[in-house]
Amino acid sequence: MTTFIWVAIIIIVLSIVGLVYRLVKGPTPSDRVVALDAIGVALICLVGLFSIIVDTSFFLDIILLLAILSFIGTIAFSKYIEKGDIITRDNSR
Amino acid sequence: MTILANILIIFFISLGVLFLVVAAIGLFRLPDLYTRAHAASKSATLGVMSILLGVFFHFWLMENHFNPTILLGVLFLFITGPVGGHIMSRSSYIAGVKPWAGTVRDDLKPEIERMKKEQNIK
């Protein structure tokens, strides 16, 4: 079982290397944001598998935290790419 | 019973690893931002949900520790993964990223032009 988890971790790390290639090379900034989002998702998987290996359940709160931070980062980057700023000024007041 | 639980955990984790590798190959090989966002949002979301289900079953069946935080994380990723991909590709279309040269039809373009015209009149 431990060997299986290690093999899964190694395969996920290799796929993270493939995502880092897209993060370095990607022609537009949007490509890099999509690759960062996928890297965050793969990092969540690594935290889950690593908590199986070290046999504690203290790391499992990090999963929800990483998911929320990755979503907020993607939304902020996409608002910046679309409009040029993240928090828009309210002109109606 | 332990063998059955092991089979369940190994099935879920290997399914998730397979989908993550498919997402990485898709981001490596596909020609265009929109196809890459398609691969990343769908396949990576399904992969991480399946791996987290495997981790949840491991802690529940092996260690008798029911952890609802993982289920909450699965639900959150199921909601926010496709929403993030959609908002990212929509904002990059508005910012002017061109689709792939072999694209046949573009239904969003007349809609965006109509929206810009209405905003200029108003």
Automatic annotation (TrEMBL), chain A:
<dbReference type="Pfam" id="PF04066">
    <property type="entry name" value="MrpF_PhaF"/>
</dbReference>
<keyword id="KW-0050">Antiport</keyword>
<keyword id="KW-0406">Ion transport</keyword>
<keyword id="KW-0813">Transport</keyword>
<keyword id="KW-0812">Transmembrane</keyword>
<comment type="similarity">
    <text>Belongs to the CPA3 antiporters (TC 2.A.63) subunit F family.</text>
</comment>
<keyword id="KW-1133">Transmembrane helix</keyword>
<feature type="transmembrane region" description="Helical">
    <location>
        <begin position="59"/>
        <end position="81"/>
    </location>
</feature>
<keyword id="KW-1003">Cell membrane</keyword>
<keyword id="KW-0472">Membrane</keyword>
<protein>
    <submittedName>
        <fullName>Multisubunit sodium/proton antiporter MrpF subunit</fullName>
    </submittedName>
</protein>
<dbReference type="GO" id="GO:0015385">
    <property type="term" value="F:sodium:proton antiporter activity"/>
</dbReference>
<dbReference type="GO" id="GO:0005886">
    <property type="term" value="C:plasma membrane"/>
</dbReference>
<dbReference type="InterPro" id="IPR007208">
    <property type="entry name" value="MrpF/PhaF-like"/>
</dbReference>
<feature type="transmembrane region" description="Helical">
    <location>
        <begin position="6"/>
        <end position="24"/>
    </location>
</feature>
<feature type="transmembrane region" description="Helical">
    <location>
        <begin position="33"/>
        <end position="53"/>
    </location>
</feature>
Automatic annotation (TrEMBL), chain B:
<comment type="similarity">
    <text>Belongs to the CPA3 antiporters (TC 2.A.63) subunit G family.</text>
</comment>
<dbReference type="GO" id="GO:0015385">
    <property type="term" value="F:sodium:proton antiporter activity"/>
</dbReference>
<keyword id="KW-1133">Transmembrane helix</keyword>
<dbReference type="GO" id="GO:0016020">
    <property type="term" value="C:membrane"/>
</dbReference>
<feature type="transmembrane region" description="Helical">
    <location>
        <begin position="40"/>
        <end position="60"/>
    </location>
</feature>
<keyword id="KW-0472">Membrane</keyword>
<keyword id="KW-0050">Antiport</keyword>
<feature type="transmembrane region" description="Helical">
    <location>
        <begin position="66"/>
        <end position="88"/>
    </location>
</feature>
<keyword id="KW-0813">Transport</keyword>
<dbReference type="Pfam" id="PF03334">
    <property type="entry name" value="PhaG_MnhG_YufB"/>
</dbReference>
<feature type="transmembrane region" description="Helical">
    <location>
        <begin position="6"/>
        <end position="28"/>
    </location>
</feature>
<keyword id="KW-0812">Transmembrane</keyword>
<dbReference type="InterPro" id="IPR005133">
    <property type="entry name" value="PhaG_MnhG_YufB"/>
</dbReference>
<protein>
    <submittedName>
        <fullName>Multisubunit sodium/proton antiporter MrpG subunit</fullName>
    </submittedName>
</protein>
